[in-house]
Amino acid sequence: MAFNTSGQTYNGSGGPIPDNGTSVYFPISISDLGQIDTLYGLESVCINLQHPYDSDLGIELIAPDGTHVILTYANGGDGDNYTFTCFSDFADIPIGQGTPPFTGTFRPQEILGNMNNHQSGSGIWQLYIYDMYPYADAGTLIDWSITFGDNPSGPFLFESSNLPIVIIDSHGQNIPDDPKISVDFSIIDNGPGLRNFVIDPPSFTHNVGIEIRGSSSQMFPKKSYGFETWDGLNNSVDTTILGMPSESDWILNANYTDKTFCRNALAYQTWINLGHYGTRYRFCEVLINNQYKGIYVLSEKIKRDKNRVDISKLTIDENTGDDVTGGYIFKIDKSTGSGGDGWTSDYPPPAHASGQTIFFQFDYPQSDVITEPQKTYIKDYVNTFETALAGPDFADTLLGFRHYAAEGTFLDYFLVNELSKNVDGYRLSTFVNKERDSKGGKLRMGPVWDYDIAWHNANYCGGDQFTGWAYQFPCTDDYWQIPFWWSRLMEDPLFRDHLKCRWLFLRGNVLSNASFDQYIDSIAGLLNESQQRNFTVWPILGVYVWPNPQPIPATYAEEITSLKSWVHQRLGWLDFSLPGTCETVNVTETSLNAEELKLFPVPCKDELNIRYSLSGKAMLHWELTDQVGRIVNRQTGTLQATGVFQDRINTSLLLPGVYFLKLSVDEFSLQRRVVKL
Question: If exposure means fewest CB atoms within 10 Å of the residue's CB, which of 250, 374, 499, 518 is most exposed?
Answer without folding.
Answer: 518
